[in-house]
Amino acid sequence: MPSPGRVSDPHILGRKPLDDEADFYGLTHPGLVRKENQDHFLVGSLRKYLDVHHTSLPGLDQNPVMGERLGYLAMVADGVGSSERGGEASRLAIEAATQYVAHSMGCYYAADSSNETAFHEALQEAATRCHETVLQQADAASGSGSMATTLTLWIGIWPWSYLLQVGDSRCYVFHRDRLVQRSRDQTLAETLVDQGVLTRADVADSQWSHVLSSSIGGSQTAPVVTRLKQAWKSVGLLCSDGLTKHVPDEQIAARLRHMTSAKQACEALLQDALDGGGSDNITIIVGRLLRKDSTD
Known about the structure:
The chain is of the alpha+beta class. The protein has one domain: Phosphatase 2c, domain 1, CATH 3.60.40. It contains seven helices and twelve strands. The protein has helices spanning 86-102, 105-110, 116-140, 188-194, 241-244, 249-257, 262-275; strands at 2-3, 22-29, 39-46, 50-55, 71-78, 151-157, 160-166, 170-175, 178-181, 224-230, 235-239, 282-289. It has a seven-stranded antiparallel sheet with strand order 1-10-7-6-5-3-4. It has a five-stranded antiparallel sheet with strand order 2-12-11-8-9. Helix 1 packs across helix 3. It starts with a strand and ends in a 7-residue tail after the last strand.
């Protein structure tokens, strides 16, 4: 997963990670209040096709691993809470992004890892395709309710990673004993902070903190793509706000600091969210790169 490390960092420099040096896991849970789980997620490897490891999507082919791995892909989509068809919107967004990436492998193979423009354009196009897919489905079912979702998509192609953000699902990185939120919430509260109407301290208690200013399928979509460096030993986390509503950053950092595996960390964070109230759907993806020949 992405890291804020410097180019001179010895954990960044060096060879590409081997398959058995990557530890990724994802899960989703409806929580304790809502009957329907409107979250969806996917974790996979980028090869000549997309090799799916974990996903909430039903019936998605999981092909045997073949060919050299190019990188990794992780996605979280959270159906907008006020949307009557948020679950369908999040499923469509993940499916559309999956299909776009799976059919665009040539772009990734052809692009140099330092070609920032190519990856920015590819991810912007992925967001556009997802947005159009959800809008078309909503139009086809006129009168059945609105459809909108968040989408946080991470692609790691060593030594770079690319983060696509729409909405308020989040991407965190735990690196050198410090947890950093690498995504920025696209909410009205954040917009008001930018305008000087709210202070940063006001955001948590603001009525606008969970009102999206940008979404897939909504009235406005403004995808943001960020390029980041990857690093050995860093831990990445993608999640829906069902986790962050109930688990503070300090507790997330503690779980990642003492994790024994990505699966264990996901399950521990899920239990924390349920113990904290579980008022929303909860989706968590954790990933890390552990170098086996490292002496430190």
